[in-house]
Amino acid sequence: MTALLRVESLTVAYGPVTAVRALDLAVGDGEIVALLGANGAGKTSTLRALSGLVRPVGGRIRFAGEDVTGLPPDALVGRGIVHVPEGRQVFGPLSVLENLELGGFTQRKDRAFLRETLAFVFELFPRLKERLHQPAGTLSGGEQQMLAIARGLMSRPRLLLLDEPSMGLAPIVVQDIFRTLRAINGRGTAILIVEQNAKAALALAHRAVVLELGEKVLEGPSEALASDPRVVDAYLAQA
Ligand code: ATP
């Protein structure tokens, strides 16, 4: 498998607190990888390092054959890495369309690109097209999550980093969003997804990595992990 993303010995620390320790991780071109683990395991910190929001204190990040370690977020977006953070941080007073246009800011001058990308996004999220001029803050929680993902797609990323897209949403909405994530992946975007809902994440992902206290403790194809007693006991038993 050619790795689109290859992370070697990534270490992330906040002062004296080491959040991620010597993590090796790869995401193949067109692959979906789930990052699982309890609260505080270092999942969000991993995504923040990959999108340039925190500077790793150690290790190397290679993307599409290039060393991108320590690059700032805008440079990483330009190379095709987009982070959709937890908590669907849409701009509430702005309309759906304005939020989407902000996501496409890197190609803002190219109107044709923007139009094409909007059409692509509306095909994936028809509900957003119906609410184009509605303030984002008045959308339902599920629609705001869809908008957050759609905004991320506006720069046509090669790798989408998703943090807890199911957070606080009803099961039927989660199903809808996960179906759309599969469709996004089907159109060629690789996905690294952090999820508390391990069952849904393992059903979606090709492979999964389990973190505990900042370190990788398990890794493998999703089907194998979904029946691994260590994963079942810790993450699936009560689901
Ligand atoms: P959660 O699901 O709760 O978000 P997580 O697996 O994403 O957990 P992180 O948020 O990456 O874990 O946190 C890993 C560790 O780093 C935790 O011990 C956390 O307290 C610590 N941490 C995270 N952000 C900061 C920060 N800005 N300053 C100091 N410590 C932090």
From TrEMBL:
Keywords: Amino-acid transport, ATP-binding, Nucleotide-binding, Transport
Keyword Transcription regulation appears in the UniProt entry: no
Top-rank taxon: Bacteria
Domain ABC transporter residue range list: 5-238
Single GO MF annotation: ATP hydrolysis activity
One of the protein's GO biological processes: L-amino acid transport
Family assignment from sequence similarity: Belongs to the ABC transporter superfamily.
InterPro entries xref list: AAA+_ATPase, ABC_transporter-like_ATP-bd, ABC_transporter-like_CS, BCAA_Transport_ATP-bd_LivF, P-loop_NTPase
Lineage of source species: Bacteria, Bacillati, Bacillota, Bacilli, Bacillales
Pfam families, sorted: ABC_tran
The protein, known as: ABC transporter ATP-binding protein
